[in-house]
Design a protein that fits this description.
Blueprint: H1 3-18, H2 23-26, H3 35-42, E1 47-51, E2 54-60, E3 65-71, E4 74-81
Antiparallel strand pairs: 1-2, 2-3, 3-4
């Protein structure tokens, strides 16, 4: 197997293992969870923003995502789209 083929196979395996943005993990989210609990479940967010004790973090992209809104350090509401 060439080095290029090995690198491609390794990348595919890595990406498949890292995709925590799915229906199974979405169903594990609960109001009141802490940020560290959510990040343990979903990994590092793609984007976070906020002000005045409220924040919103998103995992994924436009086609498949989970969005979590926090009040302080706890989940207030969450939503998702394109989950499988």
């Amino acid at each position: 197997m060439s080095l290029r083929s090995l690198a491609l196979v390794s990348l595919c395996v890595l990406l498949a293992a890292c995709n925590n943005i799915n229906q199974e993990n979405y169903s594990k989210l609960k109001a009141g969870m802490t940020k560290p609990e959510v990040e343990k479940l979903l990994g590092t967010p793609t984007e976070c923003k906020g002000a005045l004790g409220f924040s919103s973090c998103t995992w994924g992209d436009e086609e498949q995502f989970i969005s979590v809104q926090y009040a302080g350090d706890e989940v207030l509401i969450y939503s998702g789209g394109g989950l499988k």
